Amino acid sequence: MSAPGTMEPTEVIARARAGDAEAWGQLYHDYAPAIFRFCRRALPTREDAEDATMEVFMKLRGKLNQYDTTRSFTAWLYKVAANHCWDSLRRRRTRQDKETGDLENVPLEHPDPSQLERLIEQRTSEEVRKALEKLGARARMALVMRYYSDMSYDEIADALGVRRAFVGVVLLRARHELRQALEGGSALAAGGAS
Amino acid sequence: MSQTPEEKSKHLDEMTCLLYIERQLDRARGLEVSAHTQECVACRTLLRAMERESRLLTRAMLEEDEPLPSRLAQFQEKARRSMQWIWGLVFGLAATGVYAFYTQYILLWQTQLEQAGFGGSNLLGLLIFQGTMWKGWQSVITLLEVLAMLTLAGLGALVFRRRIRRGSALALVFAGLCTVVSMPPAASATEFRKGQSPTVNKDEIIKGDIYLSGERVKIEGRVEGDVFAAGKDIEINGQVTGDVISAGRYLQVRGTVDGNVRSAGNTAVISGSVGKNMMWFGDVVTVESTGKVGGSVTMFGDSLAIDGHVGRDILFFGTGINVNGAVEGGIREKGHTLIIGANAQVGGPIHFEGDKPAEVSSSAKLASPVEFKQMEHRKEYRDSSYYIWQVIWASAYILFGLVLFALMPNFSEEAVKATEQYGAAAGLGILVGCGLPIAALIACVTVVGLFIGISTLFLWYAALHFGQIVVAALIGQWLMGRTQEIWPLVGRMVVGFVLLRLCTMIPHVGWVFKYGAAFWGIGAISLVVYRRLQPVIAPGMPSGPYTPPLPPSTTMGGVQPA
After folding, report:
1. What global pTM score does this model have?
2. Residue closest to B338 by CA, chosen among B308, B312, B363, B318
């Protein structure tokens, strides 16, 4: 899951495992911005994201010995961050009541493709980020895990505590929520302009 | 583009489209979808729209719209330095502890051993004190100090060899310790005198404080300041306008001390005058018939004899008091015996808790009769009041915790989190828990000052209790799950504390739980205090150069490879 051409920092990780503070600093320098952005997308406020980033790296100290060096460090790190953020969101029970119910009720209809295309064409990245902030915790977490950190369906299922078969449902419902949020923003803007 | 229900049923549903573009369909189903989209424009358009939606999502999330906050850049520095800091502190405290242990205990033991007849004839004495290297007490102290420092330096280098090359913090600690040890006397009014018999001569006037150390310390002249003395015998025959703070086997005040006498040692004899109070940690204090203490006498030790005059109260914890002089205040004693002789005059109430009633001469002049309370030696946990008091204490602790959690919610929460850094918290707890009172005691008897020393002792004492509360909150979290909200955390603290208190009530081993929790908690609090004291990077300071390990773009339509 590392960026193309980016080597896994095997030597730095080995040194960090041995307690080398310099190596820890290096790992933090290299990965903290990405983890901060992950947390920023997943959690409601910037302060939460800052706290979570620090906590993830503090956890990392204890967990680094559990890291399997044959696998991608970046993927493992995102998994730790995802688990931490989801734990944090669950503890707050943010909008959980709304979300815990009807995973089984999947909308199986065929939406109007041209309407969807129009919606996507008209939206900027910034608008999408703002719309993301309006989503429920599970929806946002699922989208971030999938489209920011490229986690597999198995990893998402594991982190969210749902069956793998429902990951698609969670993602689709999240997309629906996002579209509603984007449309709501647009209607609001139009209403304000007129 | 409105569609009839029949047309819709022919098309792919959105779920299938999503799973297709995310390569989650099995091969057979993927091929079916692929074939369908060749024919069906609407489904092909939907697939493209959803793929674009995926790309828009990925792009929106990966864009670097915010720089790394300065707080996190600061944390990076912490990550680099924290190990060095912790071990630097550990090392510094350990060195301080050893040094304090030597000066506070070993010296006193040596003098007591000498008194018991071992001085100069035991093996240690023969090897070190009577050997060819003997050049007086000062050289022995210096030799042992240097040996202690070298041993610690060697151990430190061995343990921290990996980090020592980058250990700027360690270097700082070393430098600081070396400076303190080797620093020459500052160019101030304070004087330092060492040697076999450091003396302030009869016609000499010292304007300022003076530090004296040696086998036989004598003040014959006048000191216009405080006297800090360490030695075997300390005699004050002249005048001291400030306080006398001493440690030694024998202290005799024949002259005048206008301030307080605070000392630790074996025997103190006051035949002169002490203007203010006297505090003594040691065996015997005698205020002779010519002696006078203007203030109160506080003693923790063996026996106290008052033949002279005490201006205020006596507070005593030890074996016994023998009063045959005048005490203008009251007497409060917890000991074994109280003897009030024929010449005694006591102006205040007398409370005595001991093994047998006080022996009071019929000729003694007392303001009120002696209030005697029989000392109880039975095991307290057999008494029902013990359990009532446990409940009262537990409630008081919980109230204390409630106040602290309400007043300092963030600090408390961070402290509870820090307890989960088991190794650092426990290790640091032992060191700070043991080192802080030693440092405070050193502060009390040195130039640092009594106020700082006593304040530190109070802080340490409060931290002992707060530490238990912090650990109780962690225990509560183990049982009831984690929380970041303050009131649920308080609830967990209450549950945890009740359990902890129950553990501390177990006979013989309860103290292990009590002090274990207290020290562990102190370690966690120390970690949080350190983090809070870290310097803050100026706002707006750009974060360091950074090339992030970007997650790749994700969605590509197609069939999942078989």
Report:
1. 0.40
2. B318
